[in-house]
Amino acid sequence: MSEHIATVTWKRIGEGFDYQSYSRDHQWRCENGIKVDASAAPAFRGNPACVDPESAFVASVSSCHMLTFLAICARRHIVVNSYTDRAVGHLERGPSGRPAIARVELRPRIEFEGAAPSPEELHALHEQSHADCFIANSITSAVTVEES
């Protein structure tokens, strides 16, 4: 259907190379030329001024869900004025004992033009969004939507 390319580049800075001191800073370059400064999460000796892979993963899940939700609403002529999500990913030890983002909680706050969908309709919109989300269909992490 389509291809998506990212180039990730890292270079050693300084003389040494040991676990305590090597730089985790690197750069992501997307196929459209956008560059993102990235690093490990601060908990793993990363640079807090950069995006870390775990946060990017959570943002990717949230963003895809939102874009799918907006597309469904637009097709159904449900006008959305704003959508804000404070998504939370939980790094946990999986069944193998290895760390993984085991679950992602989406907490969207949505404002609609005119009458908002009923709680049941909103739930169905989120269920359809989750089912159609490319990223959610690509991962094994549990994704839940906390509806307000």
Descriptive report:
- Helix 1 packs across helix 2.
- Strand 5 (88-93) and strand 6 (99-106) form a beta hairpin.
- This protein has two domains: 6-44, no CATH class; 53-145, K homology (KH) domain (GMP Synthetase, Chain A, domain 3, 2-Layer Sandwich), CATH 3.30.300.
- It has helices spanning 53-75, 119-132, and strands spanning 6-9, 26-30, 35-38, 80-85, 88-93, 99-106, 108-112, 142-145.
- The longest helix has 23 residues, at 53-75.
- A three-stranded antiparallel β-sheet has the order 1-2-3, with no helix packed on it. A three-stranded mixed β-sheet has the order 5-6-8, covered by helices on one side. The protein has a two-stranded antiparallel ribbon with strand order 4-7.
- It is α+β, with helices and mostly antiparallel strands.
- The model has no long low-confidence stretch (mean pLDDT 95).
- The two termini are 35 Å apart.
- The protein contains two helices and eight strands; from the N terminus they run E-E-E-H-E-E-E-E-H-E.
